[in-house]
Design brief:
The complex is a heterodimer of chains A (about 350) and B (about 110). Helix content of chain A is about 85%, strand content about 0%. Chain A has about 350 residues and is an all-alpha fold. The longest helix of chain A is centred in the C-terminal third of the chain and has 38 residues, at about 230-270. The relative contact order of chain A is 0.10. Chain B has about 110 residues and is an alpha+beta fold. In chain B, β1 and β2 form a beta hairpin. In chain B, α1 (about 10-20) crosses α3 (about 45-55). The chains are: A mainly alpha (about 350), B alpha+beta (about 110). The interface of A and B includes residues 20, 30, 54 and 57 of A.
Amino acid sequence: MKSPPPPILPTKLLQRLASGPHGEAVAGDLTEQYQQGRSAVWYWRQALLAIVVSFAKDRTLGGPAILGFLLVILLIVVSVLCHSASLGTGLLITDLALLSGYGAFAIWVWRQRRPDSRDALTVGSQTALILAVVLITSHAIEWFTLLESRTGQLVRGAGSVLLMLALLGAAGSAAWQRTRSTMLAVIAGLWCGSLATLILLSFALTLNLAFPAHAASWLHEAFVASGMRDAGAFIVRNSLEAASEILVRMPVAALLLGFCGALSNALITGRSRTVAVVAAWFTPIIFIAGATALWYANSLERAARPPFVMAGILAAGIALCGAHPIWSSLSRRHRELPHRA
Amino acid sequence: MSREVLGNFELMVMLALIRSGDAAYGVPISKTIEESTRREVLVGSVYAALERLEEKGFVASEVGEPTPERGGRAKRYFRITEKGLRRVRDTRSALIKLWQGIPALQGETR
């Protein structure tokens, strides 16, 4: 007698969602064992856990990013539903449209099979995890420290931005070093920024939903100034505005800095050691000039700050993009030097 | 000894692979581990371990013929490499060294 086929839905999910070189073999093994008498519950459990394992072992983090994208959408929808009467639809549609781009990118990353692409994306995902820790720490300090001094704000704000510039540049530089492809380096930088943004948004939106009273006290001054009557709606609006801001800015910064990181590495690699040493001396000076411009901007009135902030970020960004290529070039040459007796 | 030893699950997969001989693919490897540990094994985890071991060069694999009882899907046969066999021996030596000379464990076989 012919055995019944295994449940269709977990089989389809396994075929669609489980990545890796052995995806077909896993599905075949489960079917074979089901035909030998394993239960449907066993089949469902094995298929779903095989998908989870496949997601977890994907070093590009494409699968988890898809889940992160869905989580952010869910958090936004839940937040808006709680205060739908007080919100327009324009902001929500903008955020969802921007997020759909992130979702499409995550699916593209998840489906990549070429080894060089996966190498570059793995660099991007590893750097993204560090960047996410930086951004989450900065946000948590800002959120939980209600009375932060101006100097504290400057150190936290500028520190997190500068670290972000350094990490996006490092993602591009390290990806170029592995693949020797500027295009893949830029994609690695973009993936680094996109993944970190999804993690940050998941964290920030969860905080707002979990601690609404704290969010209200945190944004009290801005709420009073807004003229709105519903504090909850104001928090949601503020979250959506902040989300759209980072969803637009991060890819632009990531593209630019990923390219700068790759370019710096391409310029330094293969040249004489003197070039790397000169760059190592010259780069901190550019960085200090940029940091000084940011510090000076903080002492000015808000309206007078933009040129100094832009100049400061540009100078510091250029210097930080050079950090990884210089460090890797000098350390590689140090390893290559013959050991003297 | 500077070379790292295999992890617990990776070692079990390698031993089950050796025991299964020429017909080593996911099903017999999983069943061998299940019989020795008396616990359900996740087929996905077995393949994840095999993938890691393959990347390290400890096992090699090749695709077999598709069969009807697998829904027309092919088996993937695995075999241990010389490098993998050396790593199993190294791990065994390291574990024996750790095992020896512990009074509380003397005479135990299970």
